[in-house]
Amino acid sequence: MQNSICKILEFMKILDKFCLTERVTKLSDGTFETDSSHTFKLMFMVMMIYPYLQHKYDYTKLLEMALVHDIAEAETGDFPRAIQRMHPEIKKIKEEQEQAAMQKYKNILPEPVNQKIFALWQEYESKETPEAILVAALDKIDANLQANQYNNGDVRYWLDLEDGEDYFRINTEKKPLVARLNEKIVSDLEEAVINLTKENTLKCQINIKL
Length: 210
Hints:
By secondary structure, this protein is mostly helical. It has a single domain (2-203), classed as Hypothetical protein af1432, CATH 1.10.3210.10. 66% of the residues lie in helices and 4% in strands. The protein has a two-stranded antiparallel sheet with strand order 1-2. Helix 7 (113-126) crosses helix 8.
């Protein structure tokens, strides 16, 4: 039992790093979003859309998968989607580093939770099960929504980011994962965020061909 306690305490240090890991999107007050705040909002999004889903999903697995989906970034940092899309070699590096991080966590955590967390993360990365597809789709929708929250929709800061113009395209394109789901509530949510991005782009007088 004492060995398990030591392992839990060691992993809690990793979660502390996770709470400090910043993303490129800003919160409404201008501070950068963290991985933990993104995870918190994603889990609530799962909870709020669940009653409206047309197909059957494992609710507990949805929440647990949302909880663990980004924890590798405590070790690797965040890899913004625009940069991954513009630079495929970075996407490959991301995958390799995250796999190594999760293997490290698996070795740190006690049985049987280490196997469970690792399996949930692998399932999420595979994007093959209904739960993984749903969480991954909501993950992208939440990221796009959060990018619109700074200063009541001031999206001009995107232009200061590396490959910044691509954020406007990412936030206004429909995602294949959403189409695969065939869930009206998720499609409607995606459409609402796309419209919000277009409204904010126009309001900020940004001339980007979308």
